[in-house]
Amino acid sequence: MTFWQAWISTTLCAWMCAPALAQQEARDVSTLPIADVHFHYMAFMTPEDLRARMDKHHVRWVVSAGAQGAGGAAGSPGAKNPWARDSELKFELKDRFVAGVGGPETFSGERRDGAAFFTDPANLWAVAALERMNDLLKQDRRSFVEFFPNAENSSMEPMRRRRLPTNAHFFKEVMTLAARYNVPVPMHMEWHPESVAQLSELLDAFPKANVVLSHCGKITVADDIRPFFRKHSNVYCDLGYRSSPQGENESRKDPRRMIYWASSTFRKADIKPDWLQLVEDFPDRFMLSIDDVVSWEQYDQVVTATREAVLAKLSPATAEKVAYRNAVRLFGLPETVDTKP
Ligand SMILES: [Zn+2]
After folding, report:
1. In angstroms, what is the span from residue 7 Cα to ligand 1's centroid?
2. How many C-beta atoms surround the C-beta of residue 135 within 10 A?
3. Contact 174, 185 (CB under 8 A)
4. Segments of the chain scoring below 50 in pLDDT
5. Which CATH architecture best describes the domain 31-331?
6. Span from the CA of 289 to the centroid of ligand 1 (angstroms)
7. CA-closest candidate to residue 90, choices 149, 41, 19
8. Is the pTM of this model over 0.85?
9. How far is the CA of 92 from the centre of ligand 1 (A)?
10. Contact assessment for residue 320 and residue 286, using Cβ atoms and an 8 Å cutoff
11. What is the pLDDT of residues 100-127, one digit of tens each?
C-alpha cells in the first residue's frame, strides 16, 4: 500500500467507520432481564438448581419446550416422567415458568405410527393427543412444546430425523388451538424449500396463530429469513442453539448453523453482521433461548454468549425487545414476577 492509499483508507475509515465502531462497542447488558422462550428441563437438573442459575443470570422467565423425563438413573431427578418434572418446576418457579403441552401427549403416537400420526386426520392417537392438549390449555396458561416438522439432519432422536409436511393435518389442528388460546407454536424446521412453502401455506391459512421458528430455521442465512418475515407477519424466531458452545461441532460441517459465538482464546464474542442487521430491522420478531444443555457449565456459557454476542451488540431498544419484551407479549408472561425464593 502506498502512502496515499494508506492515507485515503485511514481518512475514509475515520469518516465512515466511526458509527459502526460506536455500535460495536459493548454495552453493559449484564442485568437486562432475559426470557428464555425455548428451554428443555434436562435430566441432570433440579428445580432449586434451575432457580439459582436463573437468578444468577437474571433469567426472569422460562418457557418449556418440553421436559426431558425418561432415562434418568433410578432415584435421580431425571427418572420421573416429563409431566411430573414440569409440575415440580411450576411449584418452584410459579409465574416465572410456563409448562408445556404436546410432548408426552404426542410421543407414543408418533413412535407407534410415524408420519401417519401427523398426516392422517383419522389417526386415533393424534385425535386423543389433540383433545388432551385442548384440555390442558383450557385449564392453565401453557406453551406448546417444540414440534419437529423437519429435523432430517438435526435431531439427536432417530425418530425425528425425517421431513413431514409442515401443513399436515396435525399441525393445522395445533394452529387452531394456537389461535383459540393465543399461544405460539414452536417449530423445528430445517429450511428445505418444500418445508418453507408448506409453512407459508400454514401461516396464510391461520393468520391469527403465531409460529416461532425454533433455532430460526436451523440452517438458514439472514437472507432466507428477511423475505419470509416480509411475507408473513405471524412468524417469529428464537436464536437458540445457533451459537457456541452448543452449535460449535455442527457448524464445522455447515457454517450457516452458527449465528453468534462466545469469547474464546482465538476470537471475541460476536454476531454475523447480516444477522445483526436483520434483528435490528425486525426487532419485534426475535427472542432468546437456552434450549438444551449438557451441564450447568454449558448453561453459563450459553447465557454469557447470548449477552456478549447478541444483547451487547444491539441498540438498547432492540436489546430490550429481544431479551424479554417480545416474549412477554407473545407468551403472555407476567411483566412483574416475584423473584424471591
Ligand atoms: Zn429444542
Report:
1. 50
2. 11
3. yes
4. 1-4, 6-23, 71
5. Alpha-Beta Barrel (3.20)
6. 9
7. 41
8. yes
9. 22
10. no
11. 999 989 999 999 999 999 999 999 999 9
